[in-house]
Design brief:
Structural class: mainly alpha
Number of domains: 1
Shape: globular
Helix content: over 70%
Number of strands: 0
């Protein structure tokens, strides 16, 4: 009996010792994730204020569009248009859905599907609501490359949703992939995709620069929130283990 009691005490002590770094990690994850989320949303809010007040960074919209018009060529217009069309609904659903399915079949985690669907649904919702609330006009058609678009300009839906979908796919690879090069490739690929999609919208005159910058910041903020919540849930699972 005495030996059993000593063994139980040792087991309890070890559990408490292991819980200390796990608890610390939980707190650090929450704090860091919260700081990143707030910083990104404050950045997005500052861009929004600049747009609604027609001041600050919004002053770059016209000069950047003028620059884009000056560097266009017939070939570049065709190539960039073909790329930007990948950011429309059907291609994005096809590409994002296929990569999500590939990850699910590889790692067999239902969390993959849940995170992707929540991220994408949020991106689409924020785009629709943002356009309706702000009601900003796109650049003049005379300054844009056809085919023209007639929906509201702010925020850039192509950019926001590309950032969210590509970013979440990259996070899932970082979380699950066994090799470092896979994680690095996923992050680089997602970054280049989101940057290129946003720049293509400005190049073609379909969006103002601030439409795109806001979409980048807000999309990253939404990702930061989802990823932080997921990491906290993972940390709690560690704490709950005996």
């Amino acid at each position: 009996m005495a030996d059993d009691r000593v063994s139980a005490e040792r087991t309890g002590t070890l559990a408490r010792v292991r819980a200390v770094p796990a608890t610390t990690a939980l707190v650090v994850t929450g704090v860091v994730g919260g700081v990143v989320f707030v910083a990104l949303m404050l950045g997005a809010a500052s861009v929004y204020d600049a747009v609604t007040e027609a001041e600050g960074v919004a002053g770059l919209d016209r000069p950047v569009l003028d620059w884009a018009m000056g560097v266009r060529t017939p070939l570049a217009d065709v190539v960039v248009t073909a790329f930007t069309n990948l950011g429309t609904t059907l291609p994005m659903v096809t590409i994002g859905g296929s990569l999500m399915l590939a990850l699910y079949l590889t790692f067999r985690r239902r969390t993959i599907v849940v995170l992707m669907l929540v991220a994408a649904a949020g991106g689409v919702t924020f785009t629709i609501v943002g356009k309706a609330l702000v009601g900003r006009s796109r650049p003049p058609l005379a300054d844009a490359v056809p085919p023209y678009e007639d929906s509201f300009s702010f925020p850039s839906g192509h950019t926001l949703n590309s950032t969210v979908v590509a970013g979440m796919l990259a996070y899932l690879v970082v979380w699950l992939a066994p090799r470092v090069w896979m994680r690095v490739a996923a992050v680089l690929g997602a970054t280049l995709w989101a940057l290129a999609m946003g720049l293509s919208r400005v190049f073609l005159g379909h969006h103002w620069l601030t439409d795109v910058v806001f979409a980048w910041l807000f999309g990253l903020g939404w990702l930061a929130l989802l990823i932080t919540v997921h990491r906290l849930l993972l940390r709690r699972q560690v704490l709950a283990e005996p």
